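Researcher: Sequence recovery benchmark, item below. Answer with residues only.
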């Protein structure tokens, strides 16, 4: 079984650190951050966010693409600075660590990984700052593909490389806080567990087609039972 967690809004919040870092990096590299004050980041990949903001500021895709390597360098530097600021604290959402502990106790019965719009190095910084580094055996990231819908197949390929076997359909669970998390694996027949710790409430996640919706992950027994039952949500 393969369990894939989103990061922002699902596992943790950086309490504005990532958005501030993104803002400064965009200004440094492109001279504009577009309409960042009102732009929604949730459920999107980092490259998608950058492209949307910069297109809105009038930049052509070719100019955006030329600047992306420098953007990620600047963003990672700024993010590391933000996360290291005196007094900064990430929020790890209720139930996250007990659920990860419970999944870890199952050993090779499950593979716990990430499916996130973060670029990989940004994901590592956030997880490390929140005390969650080393909890995930694989990942699919915004640095792998700009479209979130492409990430489940990437995660499955990495699980196959890791285990030497195919994991398919309802033996795959994506856990996330946005409709994008809920829908991104639909073509592969995966199950989606919506968790309302981000910007979307339980009704919105259910309307997006989540197989189950929890207000948070604090009920470890209920979350674990649902995750481990391939028939849950039928």
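Model:
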């Amino acid at each position: 079984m393969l369990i894939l967690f989103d990061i922002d809004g699902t596992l943790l919040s950086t309490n504005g650190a990532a958005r501030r870092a993104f803002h400064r990096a965009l200004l440094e590299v492109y001279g504009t951050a577009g309409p960042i004050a009102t732009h929604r980041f949730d459920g999107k990949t980092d490259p998608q966010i950058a492209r949307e903001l910069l297109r809105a500021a009038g930049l052509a895709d070719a100019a955006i693409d030329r600047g992306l390597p420098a953007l990620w360098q600047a963003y990672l530097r700024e993010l590391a600075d933000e996360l290291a600021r005196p007094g900064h604290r990430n929020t790890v959402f209720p139930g996250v660590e007990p659920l990860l502990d419970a999944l870890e106790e199952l050993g090779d019965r499950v593979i716990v990984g990430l499916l996130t719009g973060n670029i990989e190095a940004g994901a590592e910084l956030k997880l490390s700052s929140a005390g969650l580094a080393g909890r995930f055996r694989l990942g699919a990231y915004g640095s792998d593909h700009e479209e979130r819908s492409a990430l489940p197949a990437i995660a499955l390929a990495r699980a196959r490389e890791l285990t030497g076997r195919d994991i398919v359909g309802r033996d795959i669970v994506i856990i996330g806080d946005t409709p994008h998390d809920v829908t991104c694996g639909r073509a592969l027949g995966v199950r989606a567990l919506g968790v309302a710790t981000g910007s979307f409430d339980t009704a919105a996640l259910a309307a997006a087609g989540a197989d189950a919706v929890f207000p948070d992950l604090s009920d470890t027994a209920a979350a674990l039972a649902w995750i481990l039952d391939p028939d849950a949500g039928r």
